[in-house]
């Protein structure tokens, strides 16, 4: 309980349940429905206590079924930090001055899949939607990496979903960053080389207009590949890789902080090994 002034009268108000975070702040996870006015009083009393304790950041996680409580938090000075399908996260900074709370996730991660068979043909698709719809452009399979998914696993999955081709991940050849891509977020694009394990294409009906194995020279001859600086640079990388004068970054499994799981460090292990000889 904490004392707060309500309509010129000091009242004892129940505090919100909270846990300390690792950075001098607190986290509140709401789970029970309550009257908006009651919540507003509890929040005000809790902030008073946290301020007296020298707390810094305050996080309130509101499940979607209690979203009406967000109004009281915003009136108290909280801001929307991020939202997920089942909850809204709000943040508040107690000390004077600019806050040092981490920003919401600023980037999406996507892959570009370079898959070449032993006939020197590359796997390409035409999209039913997106900026290339109806342009006749043949492009490499692309897609977003899912939450909790490794880049190497995401590349294999995207190729399988779009073309039904099974692949083995070889390495990350390059990456680039773009900005203001999706709802003002930035994007990290990883160009991945994969080795085909199957060859019978079955296109994804919902997103892919067509898919084929295309001779490498025909792909390179496309006008947009010739005119686009990034595409030309990537073609140079693919050629250098074919000539074995360029080496990318294969995934090297590492122990994860999560028991029974692996994480991956992507690096040029070939040059590292040769430097130790």
From TrEMBL:
InterPro entries, sorted: NUDIX_hydrolase-like_dom_sf (IPR015797), Nudix_hydrolase6-like (IPR003293), NUDIX_hydrolase_dom (IPR000086), Pre-Nudix (IPR040618)
PANTHER family, A to Z: NUDIX HYDROLASE 2, NUDIX HYDROLASE RELATED
UniProt entry tagged with the keyword Hydrolase: yes
Protein's recorded name: Nudix hydrolase domain-containing protein
Keyword Oxidoreductase belongs to the record: no
UniProt lineage: Eukaryota, Viridiplantae, Streptophyta, Embryophyta, Tracheophyta
Nudix hydrolase domain boundaries: 104-238
UniProt keyword terms in alphabetical order: Hydrolase
Alphabetical list of Pfam families matching this protein: NUDIX, Nudix_hydro
């Amino acid at each position: 309980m904490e004392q707060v002034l309500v309509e010129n009268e000091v009242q004892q108000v129940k505090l919100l349940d909270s846990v300390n975070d690792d950075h001098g702040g607190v986290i509140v996870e709401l789970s029970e429905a309550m009257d908006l006015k009651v919540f507003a009083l509890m929040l005000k009393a809790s902030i008073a206590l946290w301020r007296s304790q020298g707390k810094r950041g305050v996080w309130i996680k509101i499940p979607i079924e209690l979203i009406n409580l967000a109004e009281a938090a915003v009136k108290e000075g909280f801001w929307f930090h991020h939202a997920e399908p089942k909850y809204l996260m709000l943040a508040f900074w107690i000390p004077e001055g600019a806050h040092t709370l981490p920003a919401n996730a600023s980037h999406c991660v996507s892959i570009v899949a370079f898959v070449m068979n032993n006939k020197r043909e590359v796997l390409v698709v035409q999209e039913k939607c997106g900026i290339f719809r109806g342009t006749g452009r043949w492009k490499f399979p692309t897609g977003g990496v899912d939450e909790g998914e490794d880049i190497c696993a995401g590349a294999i999955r995207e190729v399988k979903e779009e073309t039904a081709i099974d692949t083995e991940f070889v390495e990350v050849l390059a990456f680039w960053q773009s900005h203001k891509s999706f709802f003002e977020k930035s994007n990290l694009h990883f160009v991945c080389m994969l080795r085909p394990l199957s060859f019978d294409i079955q296109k994804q009906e919902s997103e892919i207009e067509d898919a084929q194995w295309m001779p490498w020279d025909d792909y390179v001859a496309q006008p947009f590949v010739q005119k686009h600086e990034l595409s030309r640079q990537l073609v140079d990388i693919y050629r250098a890789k074919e000539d074995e004068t360029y080496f990318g970054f294969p995934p090297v499994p590492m122990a994860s902080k999560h028991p029974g799981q692996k994480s991956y460090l992507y690096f040029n292990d070939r040059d590292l090994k040769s430097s130790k000889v």
